[in-house]
Amino acid sequence: MVQEKRLLIGCVADDFTGAGDIASFLVANGIRTVLSNGLPAADMKFSEEFGAVVIALKSRTQETAQAVQDSLAAFDWLREHGAQTLYFKYCSTFDSTPKGNIGPVIDAVLERYEIPCTIICPSLLVNKRAVKDGILYVDGVPLAESHMKNHPLTPMWASDLCELMKEQGKYPCYKITHDLLGKPEEIRARVAAYQQEQKHFYLAVDFFAPEQGQQIAQAFDGIRFMTGGSGLAAELAHYWTKSGAVAAPDFGDYEETARLMFAGSCSVATRGQVKTYLEAGGKGVMVSPAKLASGEQSIESLWQFIQAHPQEDLLLYSAGSGGCVEQAGEQDAGRLEQTFAALAQRAAKAGCTRLISAGGETSGAVTQALGYDAFYIGENVAPGVPIMVPIQNPHLRLVLKSGNFGAPDFFLKTLKES
């Protein structure tokens, strides 16, 4: 039956791997979670044991008006299905251009539901992303000075959260710094004062030490709309359930076939993971957009390679993931994603039950090709990287990670744990 119990949290994520990221942290902190790839059907069914629904969109790099429209449709669905708290999940590196899309989506939600304010908190301490004095740091370096500053789609152009919001949002941004955390009454008094002056506003909240998470959850308990990375969501889940880590649900037995892995991300993290895997003796093949364009490589030739190694774990990785530099444009990236997606689809139809994908765009293409639109979330193989089980096919196991996530031994560790 359609769930009658009110959802503790309804989340909209701006890409698929980000959705898996936040869903995994909710599960780890005691809230059973369903993930929907795109807007769920109006009558999507899930049992009453689930306390959260996460909707994965492709809004991070969409045209802004479309990103806002899709996001509002998703939040409308969550409200209609009883979500007590709404959460807008974006990357812990605040992947957004000066024109959006984080700011425009936040503004649209505040205005549509007449919510006075929201929190801006992209911290994820386990992955070394932290906010101090309103500045977002990546591994101790201000965001705009980090190795992520030259992202091809969402370059990191500023580090101060209020400066980031000034360029892409309509409303004032106030900082709630660490000296106020642990003083919930003082924070609430400040918020009430801001509300007397402004119809809508943002609160950039510090979060750089573990104990601050529960202080934030306590101080802002009752705010109907939160935004940030998965770190804040984990703290909210822990605060609500008071449970800490719990055992992930058991989705039953399945045939453990050899793993087929894809790496399309060119991030520093994924390049290191591919290198570590290959140096440890893992079998793989580099897939080049240039070779795909010339016909030297093709879906058919790569599928023949896969079929020739039925009992071996295989990694298909892009030239960029392998550290090679190619003049690759949007068309080349699309060709690569389509190739990996087609191979994943063939593998699943041929009986492969374990698929692993590194990179948000790659993972989105793979899941779209597989045709599944809703997933149960299982245990983590790395922080923010869960095992996912399609509701429509409980015999398949998927591991999908953002390009920047995971330690150098990610592929080796995942082969042991999935």
Description:
With 418 residues, the chain is α/β, with parallel strands linked by helices. Helices cover 36% and strands 21% of the residues. The protein contains 13 helices and 18 strands. It has helices at 16-28, 64-80, 102-112, 161-168, 184-197, 212-219, 230-241, 268-279, 289-294, 299-307, 330-349, 360-370, 410-417; strands spanning 9-13, 33-37, 52-56, 85-89, 117-121, 129-132, 135-138, 141-142, 173-176, 201-205, 225-228, 260-263, 283-287, 314-318, 354-358, 374-382, 385-390, 397-401. A 15-stranded mixed beta sheet has the order 9-10-5-11-4-1-3-2-16-17-18-15-12-14-13, with helices on both faces. Strand 9 (173-176), helix 5 and strand 10 (201-205) form a beta-alpha-beta unit. Helix 1 runs parallel beside helix 7 (230-241) and helix 11 packs across helix 12. The two termini are 31 Å apart. The mean pLDDT is 90.
- SS elements, strand count: 18
Q: Using only CA atoms, what is the Rg?
A: 21 Å
Low-pLDDT residue intervals, each spanning 5 or more residues: none
The chain-level mean pLDDT equals 90
Shape: globular
Distance between the termini: 31 Å
Biggest sheet details: 15 strands, mixed
* Portion in beta strands: 15-25%
Share in helix: 25-40%
* Side-by-side strand order of the widest sheet: 9-10-5-11-4-1-3-2-16-17-18-15-12-14-13
Class derived from helix and strand content = alpha/beta
Q: How many helical stretches?
A: 13
